[in-house]
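request received
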Amino acid sequence: QVQLQESGPGLVKPSGTLSLTCTVSGGSISSSNWWTWVRQPPGKGLEWIGEIYHTGSTNYNPSLKSRVTISVDKSKNQFSLKLSSVTAADTAMYFCTRDDSSTFDYWGQGALVTVSS
Amino acid sequence: DIQMTQSPSTLSASVGDRVTITCRANQSLSSWLAWYQQKPGKAPKLLIFKTSSLEIGVPSRFSGSGSGTEFTLTINSLQPDDFATYYCQQYRTFGQGTKLEIK
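response:
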């Protein structure tokens, strides 16, 4: 059973950089899947942020592309998210998930990140 | 860009009811449409993939159908555990969600 777990600071200052890591267990990050970040502002819907393949290939949401970097560490079976120049609008629950044929089948429990001074 | 609109945004129903949630797209979609259930403070849970395929462990009272630009999620004989928010998803786009409330 694949499991994903997000980790990282829960509070980031405005204009700072949000950094989260997703640790994958019960499966290999080098499988034929894309690994994805999705976020959900409080009381709102789901927004796709971006994805990475184990080769390092990435795709990003055009609305966030200038601020997002997703990377992979195969030795640790992890992938990470960095979002720069954050504002209060980036306050959200951040989920990591596995994309299996355009379906998100496994999800982490989520990490709440608040942007505040 | 694909835009997906769910209706209704909120649905009030009673235990034992049959409910249908619709997801409409602004362009014809492939069959790779999925439905998720989300409860407060939890991650979304995959219910249906590829329009009508039930994820392992999901009760058979959940079903999906549709093609082109209109897709539906149907829940037969609502159970107390079914009151939650439901999202459709195709590729990188999610619907805005439908909150299923107890009447």
